[in-house]
Amino acid sequence: MGTVGIFFGTDSGNTRRVAKDIATILGPSVAAKPVNIRNATVTDLLAYDVLILGIPTYGDGQVPGLSTGNATESWEEFLPTLIGEDFTGKIIAIYGLGNQKGYPDEFIDAVYYLHDQFDSCGATLIGAWPTEGYNFKKSKAVEGDHFLGLALDQENQKDLTPSRVSAWVASIASAWAA
Fold first, then answer.
1. What's the CA gap between 61 and 7, in Å, rounded?
2. Range 95-119 burial, b when 16+ CB lie within 10 A, else e
3. Residue 138's pLDDT is what?
4. Across all residues in the chain, what is the average pLDDT?
5. Candidate from 6-20, 110-124, 134-148 with smallest mean pLDDT
6. Distance of CA 113 to the CA centre of its chain
7. What residue numbers bound the domain in which 99 lies?
């Protein structure tokens, strides 16, 4: 089992594919096999010192879950289980998928909700990513000139995903190794 836990939510499979790509880049001695968050518990996440979490943004900036009509997604259902949990000492990096042309006012907003929840649980959050090279109007997941995690758009910039994922993984790996 690797030392980095990778957890994701997915309906279309895109977030899962990125999780697998991240695991491949890190290798099996570093990364555990990615797990869909619907099959995970808080205890599963707490078993790792480093977590990489993936989430798509749905519709008007929503966290995927039952209320968005995505029964296979369960971040919405999982987030309340974190209330009162202590992630102090845990390092967390988040990546998010969104559609900057279709939803330019909510691009990867769901990343913000994960970031906010884990921040309130005491986690150390890493993996900010520059907003340069994207074309959106606003996002809750932006602080200054960086996203709170890796931003991916499989609808409009799919060709940039491999290089973005590789560069981001290298940056977060150096951050937790420091």
1. 20
2. bbbbbbeebeebbbbbbbbbbebbe
3. 92
4. 89
5. 6-20
6. 10
7. 4-177
Burial status of residue 63 (CB atoms within 10 A of its CB: 0-12, 13-18, 19 or more): buried
Backbone angles phi, psi at 6, to 5 degrees: -120, 120
Kindly state the greatest CA–CA separation across the chain: 41
- Cα–chain center distance at 147: 11
3-class SS of residue 57: coil
Q: What's the number of domains the chain is made of?
A: 1
What pLDDT, in 10s, does the model give residues 54-72?
Answer: 998 866 655 554 444 555 4
Residue 75's CATH number: 3.40.50.360
Give the DSSP letter string of 97-139.
Answer: E--TTTSTTSTTHHHHHHHHHHHHTTPEEE--EE-TT---S--
